Automatic annotation (TrEMBL):
Residues 235-269 form the FPG-type domain. This is Formamidopyrimidine-DNA glycosylase. InterPro entries: FPG_cat, FPG_N, H2TH_FPG, Ribosomal_uS13-like_H2TH, Znf_DNA_glyclase/AP_lyase, Znf_FPG/IleRS. Keywords: DNA damage, DNA repair, DNA-binding, Glycosidase, Hydrolase, Lyase, Metal-binding, Multifunctional enzyme, Zinc, Zinc-finger. Coiled coil: none annotated. PANTHER family: FORMAMIDOPYRIMIDINE-DNA GLYCOSYLASE. GO terms for molecular function: 8-oxo-7,8-dihydroguanine DNA N-glycosylase activity; class I DNA-(apurinic or apyrimidinic site) endonuclease activity; damaged DNA binding; zinc ion binding. Its EC number is 3.2.2.23, 4.2.99.18. It comes from Petropleomorpha daqingensis. Its cofactor is Zn(2+). Residues 2-119 form the Formamidopyrimidine-DNA glycosylase catalytic domain. GO terms for biological process: base-excision repair.
Amino acid sequence: MPELPEVEALTAFLQENAVGHVVTRVDLAAVQAIKTFDPPLSALGGLEITGVSRHGKFLDLDVSGLHLVVHLARAGWLHWRTGLPPAPPKPGRGPLALRVHLDDGNGFDLTEQGTRKSLAVYLVHDPAQVPGVARLGPDALQVSFEDFALLLTSRSGQLKGALTDQTLLAGIGNAYSDEILHTARLSPFKMADKLNEDELIRLYDAMRAELTEALGRQLGQKAATMKGEKRSGLQVHNRTGLPCPVCGDTVREVSFADTSLQYCPTCQTGGKPLADRRLSKLLR
């Protein structure tokens, strides 16, 4: 899933390559992707892209006052295309969800792999009209330590869920929450409202360090290489069974109905593996 560093890097890429160009046409290939109907996508034709910004994990293209807001969900991505074909794509075929044509013959595709389709596109006059944007908490790279500590200690729930709750903190998903907790040496199942001051400081510093480092690796990358760059920098996420690069212990996994998390027992849980039984009470 694209998270804060990838969406911020895509924002910078589009600022360099798309801003100043006029949208000539928008092709919708997956009807379920579009979540608004007024104004219609056809209203973008002839308008100039004047800016690109990010709200949490949402990408926002300002097209002369209209906002094309995109959430790439778990398996979505943006592909920059040079020399787009003039013929419109066939609806419902393959991963293509939306295609945007620009006046120089280039443009971009929004695609989504797999059968579970969650990629969402909105065309609105104000990004706050998008429900997910309106509910966002403070940005994970902009929140102060004082506000961060207040948010965490006022929430009753596990740290993994707190970090990925977009209404609490915006921008962190499954991968970077694993990385942040590993760097902070904290169990994903530790209760957020039970953190002491030292643990809060470690978690805040780890969050800023991991996201800043990841963003530094992504900025300047082409859209096509960002996914690989993300994978190359991960220490525990999606590395089940491999040695922890910090201590050498084996990275473990806890599986849930539709997702999983990875962690290092030595670095994070005092050497004790966490229970991986979906219906059991998870160890803390």
